[in-house]
Amino acid sequence: MPTTDQHAKLWDLIKDTRYGMLTHRHGDGQLHSHPLTTQSKNLEEGGTLYFFIPRDGEIARHVASDPMVNVSYANTDKDSYVSVAGQAALVEDQARKEALFNTMSKAWFPQGPTDPNLGLLAVRIVEAEYWDVTDSKMVQLMKMAASAVTGNPPKQMAEHEKVRGG
Fold it and tell me: Is the pTM of this model over 0.70?
């Protein structure tokens, strides 16, 4: 069972990354990815992330038949990377849509939070994994240079943790 600290660390790595790449499976087995903006304001108990998607779109069609998805985040400025394996579902929650809707969402859904094509995709985290590099770029380069000389792979390049969902 994840700890509050683990969820806090996971959210800390996700919250400043503007887009996540949501990967889902088509009926023929092919994997497809789409950039989506995480609408969540925090990582709720139970570990659920929220995204707005078109109800009549590809993602909605495919997660209805195969709800297993992955959302990956890469914040290269902070050298942090997150991979979330989860279970996706369209949920009916008008109050949540209204609470999460913002100006950027209006570009895609011009009728606002009551837009009939506005779908709320909930991704319940089953497991997440993250890599958070805390060393400066200079220290990272020195570790890699030492590894090149010694022939041993660099060690402790990042904090790496697996977190189970709620």
Answer: yes
| Local structure of 56: helix, strand or coil | coil
130 in Cβ contact with 160 (< 8 Å): yes
Distances (CA, A) of 124 to 37, 88, 90, 102: 16, 6, 11, 22
Task: List per-residue pLDDT tens for the chain, 166 residues long.
Answer: 345 677 788 888 898 898 999 999 998 999 999 999 999 988 876 689 999 999 999 999 999 999 999 999 999 888 889 999 999 999 999 999 999 999 999 999 999 999 999 999 999 999 999 888 764 443 434 434 444 555 556 455 445 556 666 6
